[in-house]
Write a structure and sequence with these properties.
By secondary structure, the protein is an alpha/beta fold. The chain has helices at about 5-15, 45, 60-75, 90-100, 105-115, 125-135, 200-210, and strands at about 30-35, 85-90, 115-120, 140-150, 150, 155, 170-175, 185-195, 215-220, 235-240. It has one domain (about 25-240): Rossmann fold (3-Layer(aba) Sandwich), CATH 3.40.50.
Length: about 240
């Protein structure tokens, strides 16, 4: 084998190691797997930051990464997974006005292509309500829960820098997690937040309340390569924790 072919083989091998497991347990088509996408920042507000600290130059960070996971989960289950995708609609409506693009239609085209159940939401309480009562939870348990979006150690922040620079009016705080009924989860359910800093507090509170381990970042997550089909990674010496 030539040095070039060996290098390519090693690159392919190590790239496989970076792909997360589909779930912690086999997917039961009678259960429901839930993916949540927060909204993007507005470039208007981000323009006040230094270039290196700006967020969401591209509107689709949290949509493309959700799409990648949808593809992975469908492949892992031979399309048997029952997927629901919750998306924070107000953030994409305001960014659509800024970009001059039909972003709502773009998101709905992902729904149509992959045949997932798309549910728009406006507030953090709606996420909890869907978890608890979006389906008959005595019959349809939640087998997975993943979040793509802005966050800090205490919150999922759905409209970060969309209405207020560096702040959010719509969020899900760890203090609200005790509203989740822990009985909704299937045995061996998988949970992961792909937002920044979640593994520093939010993940631990999620586990305390639900008894389900949530993987989260200790440090910042980087979405800069998602347009290549790459999931977010922890940057700057951080790590995944729970």
């Amino acid at each position: 084998m030539t040095l070039r072919l060996l290098s390519l083989s090693l690159l392919a091998f190590f790239s496989l190691l970076t792909i997360p497991p589909a779930t912690a347990a086999p997917l039961d088509p009678n259960d429901e797997y839930i993916i949540v996408s927060g909204g993007p920042a507005l470039l208007y507000w981000e323009g006040y930051r230094r270039e290196a600290h700006r967020h969401d130059r591209w509107w689709g960070n949290f949509i493309r990464t959700a799409r990648i996971r949808i593809e992975q989960l469908q492949k892992a289950s031979n399309n048997a997974v029952n997927l629901t995708w919750l998306v924070y609609r107000p953030g994409y409506e305001t960014r659509a006005q800024e970009d001059g693009e039909p972003l709502i239609s773009h998101i709905e085209s992902v729904r149509d292509k992959y045949g997932v159940n798309l549910v728009w939401f406006n507030h953090g309480d709606e996420v909890i309500h869907y978890l608890n009562a979006g389906r008959n939870r005595s019959q349809v348990k939640v087998s997975g829960f993943e979040y793509f979006g802005h966050s800090n150690k205490f919150c999922f922040i759905f409209d970060y820098s969309n209405h207020i620079l560096g702040a959010s009016k719509s969020f899900l705080h760890q203090g609200d997690l005790d509203k989740i009924n822990r009985k909704i989860f299937a045995k061996g359910a998988y949970a992961k937040s792909w937002g920044c800093h979640t593994g520093e507090s939010f993940s631990q509170e999620f586990r305390r309340v639900t008894r389900i381990k949530m993987i989260g970042a200790v440090g910042k997550t980087d979405y800069s390569e998602c347009y290549k089909g790459t999931l977010p990674f922890v940057s700057g010496g951080g790590r995944w924790g729970s």
